[in-house]
Amino acid sequence: MIGRIYSKLRRIYYNKILKKKYAKRVLVVAKLVKGKIYINNPSTVTSNTILGENVHFNGMDIFGEGKVIIGDNFHSGTGCVIITHYHNYDNGTAIPYDDTLYHKDVIIEDNVWLGNNVTIVGGVTIGEGAIIQIGSVVVSSIPPMMIAGGHPCRPYKSRNIEHYNKLKAEKKFN
Question: Domain boundaries in the chain?
Fold first, then answer.
């Protein structure tokens, strides 16, 4: 009995207090939020982050000064990271790299789903409707409607475009 009460209190605390705290932190920092967002686990964004409508973060960390644009109906698994900066290792003044940072933007189009522990580096575009497999490291752009995975992440299958377009036309977004 006490265990059930404790469990219910924890669930209320999580749903009513923690999730609002997580969302507030993202809303305060993000450059622009176009619609309702859902922050289910601690997540960080930068002041160069633009979020679309119906964005779901389940543990997303965004680092660097590059712009990050995330489209509508986005879902991330836990432990996802977007890094928009990298060190100068080619023409630097020190080895292995100097203090110079380069910044590259990341664009994630509408209806993209990232599995758990996906890492995305700057200079990448993930096309509409793409699904990125658990644990992938995205170092180059992924075309729309592709299922991709691996290290480095590569497309290996196309989604059923006819079915996707039918659901999109019916506005069946999760």
Answer: 2-169
